[in-house]
Design a protein that fits this description.
CATH class: Alpha Beta
Number of strands: 6
CATH architecture: Alpha-Beta Complex
Distance between the termini: 69 Å
Helix content: 40-55%
Strand order of the largest sheet: 1-2-3-4-6-5
Strand content: 15-25%
Largest sheet: 6 strands, antiparallel
CATH topology: Aspartate Aminotransferase, domain 1
Radius of gyration: 24 Å
């Protein structure tokens, strides 16, 4: 065992291994409690960011409808060439991401959505997106705004 952790936890005060185990378990319980509180706090802070995004999105794009996509943090829906399109922010194990797709999951090839490949480099037959680290809140939201504005330009053509 590392002497540093042994000394740090004060295990040298106890000769009996059972007492040392009790001290270790108490410290583990304390650390788990602190960890759980930190996770709760992080979740609360993240939710505040997502709530702010929704309010800002509604303010910036009052003419667009909220996205109908499940489990998104903010998003809008609008018509593009007669089809409903959603642009939204969500996340998975790889991080936060901004995505655009037809709500019908229509193939995006040969559609105006392909005009966004310079800012949404990842693609699948039904969507384009870009990943960000899970803490790059500004980066993903700024891209979301850029994508929606570019879509407005595309809609006008």
């Amino acid at each position: 065992m590392s002497a540093d952790i042994f000394d740090y936890l004060g295990l040298d005060k106890y000769q009996d291994k059972k007492e040392q185990i009790n001290v270790l378990q108490e410290k583990i319980n304390q650390m788990n409690n602190v960890k759980n509180k930190m996770i709760e706090l992080k979740s609360s802070y993240r939710q505040n960011i997502f709530d702010k995004w929704k309010a800002q999105t509604k303010e910036k794009f009052p003419d667009m409808h909220p996205s109908k996509v499940n489990n998104y943090y903010t998003g809008v829906s609008f018509l593009l060439d007669g089809e409903t399109v959603s642009v939204y922010i969500t996340e998975n194990k790889s991080g936060l991401y901004c995505q655009i797709n037809f709500d019908s999951r229509k193939n995006i090839y040969d559609t105006k959505i392909m005009n966004l490949k310079d800012i949404l480099p990842e693609e699948h037959a039904t969507a384009r997106w870009k990943y960000f680290p899970s803490t790059d809140f500004d980066g993903v939201y700024d891209l979301f705004i850029e994508v929606v504005n570019r879509c407005r330009d595309i809609m006008d053509k």
